[in-house]
Design goal:
Length: 452
């Protein structure tokens, strides 16, 4: 069997590497138009950071895992084609700011139809709105090239930072397809790949539309939990309650559970906000405005949490940060990734820059270029500087803002850091990461999420 994946990004690269590692008799080829990205996948400096990913890639690369820009020939030769391209939120036209932009998915479908090469199974791996498969099917069926196509949905449920563990031992694998003999046969063929290392009980099969909608719904539910506990964090700060204690108390209820009840400066990443806005747009499109408004509120609460964090900094620092130096520790949207998409740090830093603060930034994995791009700044902007470690970043600053929960921040020498800062020295812990007693004993004025 020969597999092709269109798209060498956060989903396509790791997923195909794991399939190649586990399915040694299957040739897996990842294709992408970006030559620099393909070159990186063929090196030891992968284009994305994910713990354990390099070892998985090296275990199969050159044996049955390949990365190339030769798209047409690879499509022709493949039995199963995964579409794993970007589906960003539209920034133009109808649905601007909410609907998913499906032009890259459509382009893939048209290219598959053009190159031919035999009967194929085409698998949606990208996060797409429900009924997208209909578009893909229509394009393929209109090819009139003598070949037949089965279109499946196989959404990813990876969490960045734990993607390799998620691929190795997933909660479930979801495969949706048409409930015809041909569709069920295609589902079984893809399921047999995953079954080489995943128990069959974890491989769920549905119709196409249920599979597509399940991905958006899963992310919306997870984001909803974060926004819910963040809403309670504001009440905790006003009343003297402790949000971690509240989360622990409600998390012990088996009907609720403890996961995704960690309050913070806000959620980020490529999926949550994009998928909620997409879900809201779909609800509006199908005449369900009340449902759309319900999901919009999850995003608004996330924005409120970031605004509230900056306002708390302002209130604590005599209502001004103008010309004050603030150390930003962490810029990735979560630990163990170099992804900055929708990171809360973008909104926080942008607001601080609007207030004329000077920022000294350190993140162990995110490049300076990625941060500048995310903030829309030029390389020579004097208001921002980059540092190789947390100690250097905090030198001569008035305050520290922890925006990513990197483990190394827990072990900082806060006595040493306090000694080299301006006084009074503030620490704003946007992740409730640090033992407050340690930093208070060093002399800091400490502010945490959902705590006095």
């Amino acid at each position: 069997m020969k597999i092709c994946c269109i798209g060498a990004g956060y989903v396509g690269g790791p997923t195909m590497a794991m399939i190649a590692k586990k399915c040694v008799d299957t040739k897996v080829t990842v294709v992408d138009l970006n030559q620099d990205r393909i070159d990186a996948w063929n090196s030891d400096q992968l284009p994305i950071y994910e713990p354990g990913l390099l070892d998985v890639v090296k275990s199969a690369r050159g044996r049955n895992l390949f990365f190339t820009t030769d798209i047409d020939q690879t499509l022709q030769d493949s039995d199963i084609i995964f579409i794993s391209v970007n589906t960003p939120t539209k920034d133009y036209g109808s649905g601007k700011g909410k609907a998913a932009d499906l032009r890259f998915v459509e382009s893939c479908a048209r290219n598959i139809a053009k190159v031919g090469g035999g009967n194929k199974i085409v698998v949606e791996k990208s996060t797409v709105p429900v009924r997208t498969a209909q578009m893909v099917k229509e394009i393929l069926n209109e090819a009139n090239n003598g070949f037949t196509y089965q279109v499946l949905s196989n959404p990813e449920f990876l969490a960045e930072g734990t993607a390799i563990a998620d691929l190795e031992n997933p909660d479930r694998v979801l495969i949706g397809g048409e409930q015809t003999p041909e569709g069920k046969s295609a589902i079984e063929k893809v399921a047999s790949l995953y079954a080489q290392w995943i128990n069959r009980e974890k491989i769920l099969t549905t119709n196409l539309w249920s599979s597509e909608l399940s991905k958006l719904t899963a992310n919306a539910f997870l984001a909803q939990r974060i926004s819910s506990i963040n809403a309670i964090s504001a009440l905790c700060e006003a009343t003297g309650a402790d949000v971690d204690e509240v989360a622990n108390a409600i998390g012990t209820d088996s009907r609720i559970g403890s996961k995704f009840l960690k309050s913070s400066v806000g959620f980020g990443g490529s999926c949550f906000q994009k998928d909620i806005l997409n879900l809201s747009y779909l609800c509006q499109h199908f005449g369900l405005p009340e449902v759309a408004e319900y999901w919009n509120q999850v995003v608004r609460m996330n924005d409120y949490q970031k605004d509230r964090f900056v306002q708390r900094m302002m209130d604590a620092m005599f209502n001004t940060v103008s010309d004050k130096k603030i150390a930003i520790l962490g810029f990735a949207f979560k630990k163990d990734t170099n992804d900055v998409r929708e990171s809360p740090a973008i909104a926080v830093c942008s607001r601080l820059l609007e207030e004329n603060a000077c920022l000294k930034i350190y993140d162990p994995q995110v490049s300076d270029e990625s941060i500048l791009t995310a903030l829309g700044l030029e390389e020579n902007d004097k208001r921002i500087s980059f540092h190789n470690n947390a100690t250097d970043a905090t030198k001569s600053t008035h305050a520290i803002a922890i925006l990513t929960e990197w483990e190394e921040f827990k072990d900082l020498d806060f006595d040493k850091i306090y000694a080299q800062m301006e006084k009074p020295a503030y620490l704003f812990d946007g992740r409730n990461l640090i033992d407050s007693e340690i930093v208070k004993s060093a002399g800091f004025r400490v502010y945490r999420i959902g705590k006095e």
